[in-house]
Amino acid sequence: MRHLVSLFALLAAWPAFAAGSEQFTVKADQVIDEKEVFATVESRNVVPARARIGGTITSLSVKEGDEVQEGQVIGVVVDQKLALRIQALDAEINGLKSQLAQAQTDLARAQALVKGGAMSRQQLDQATTAVQVAESQLKARQAERAETEQQTREGQVLAPTTGRVLSVPVTVGSVVMPGEPLAQVAEHHFVLRLRVPERATRYLAAGQIVRVNSADLGAQGATFGKITLVYPRIEAGNVVADAEVPGLGDYFVGQRIEVWIPAGARSVLVIPSHLITTRFGLDYVHRKSADGHVEAIPIQRGRDFPTPEIPDGVEVLSGIAPGDVLVTP
User: Fold this and answer.
1) 70, 131, 256, 309: which is deepest, by most CB within 10 A?
2) Rounded to whole angstroms, how far apart are CA atoms 257 and 212?
């Protein structure tokens, strides 16, 4: 206690300083507090490449990590029953063609006999109807064959979008049903997906700027992104939001990246660090009063807080107030 009293007596006994060559007026600035969260690199859309018919996979041309283009054939599904059905339809079509040819011959004969008066008009109408029925049956079977051929072509599984293959849950020889996915394709639109506790809902909005750990992206310097979408549904107590960040990779989906998001605003006092002097473990500044008297004021120093206006800025927690004029010692 005796040493502490002596220290304050020493501070009180310091002579007043003359006004320095530099003066700085303290003012309060509004700054955004930040909260550290983790985000993951996600594709905006992950689309399954589905089989359109059931059958056996005879070929797969992609694996995990491959890049595909929209419409690219990534696998082939074959249903042996379709080939047998086409053969049966071909045989039926050949029979209907013969039946149609016979009906057309009978019709031509009936027309000639009607002109000679050897056949009634009713028999001519029956021959005409037989030709029309044969033509309709032939067209129906030809359409059915075209449908079966289209089903055969749909055995080719196409990439639904341009992107990267995340997973291929099947192998050659696997049996799949219609609608079953052969691969998951991540669209080439990668974003940072943030999951923030719901109490931070009021701080998140589309257009807000977030700060990203550049080291996680393999870059240097400050990296910033912008929130583009805040999902209206809360999942497991978290608000989900997407942020676009330049330089995001397009290979590793699910990579965790450190992000700082806005978490409210507060008023701070920032002064240049060269105005702070440290003596006997105490930080103090020199304040100039209205009558020109300069006195040493102890302060509580905070974290470094560089700003564009004050590159060597330091946050001051207590000891000074807005409007104070500080001078160099």
Assistant:
1) 131
2) 7
pLDDT tens per residue across span 27-74 = 988 877 778 888 888 888 889 999 999 999 999 999 998 899 999 999
Query: What count of residues does the chain have?
Result: 329
Cα angle, residue 285 at apex, residues 280 and 291 outer, rounded to 5°: 130
Joined tokens for residue 32: 């955004």
User: Phi/psi of residue 128, each to 5°?
Assistant: -65, -45
Task: Give the integer Cα–Cα distance in Å for 43 and 188.
Answer: 7
C-alpha 182/C-alpha 166 separation (Å) is 11
Report which secondary-structure segment, H or E, holds 201. none
Residue in 246, 201, 208 with CA at minimum distance from that of residue 227: 208
Q: Please give the single-letter amino acid code of residue 288.
A: K
Distance CA 320, CA 326 (A): 9
Record the pTM.
0.58
How far is residue 39's CA from residue 37's CA, in Å, rounded to a whole number?
7
DSSP 188: S
Which DSSP symbol is given to 72? Answer: -
Q: Go through the domains of the chain in sequence order and give each one's CATH number.
A: 13-33+267-327 (2.40.420.20), 34-45+187-263 (2.40.30.170), 47-78+155-186 (2.40.50.100), 80-153 (1.10.287)
Question: Tens digit of pLDDT for each residue in 74-100?
Answer: 999 999 888 899 999 999 999 999 988
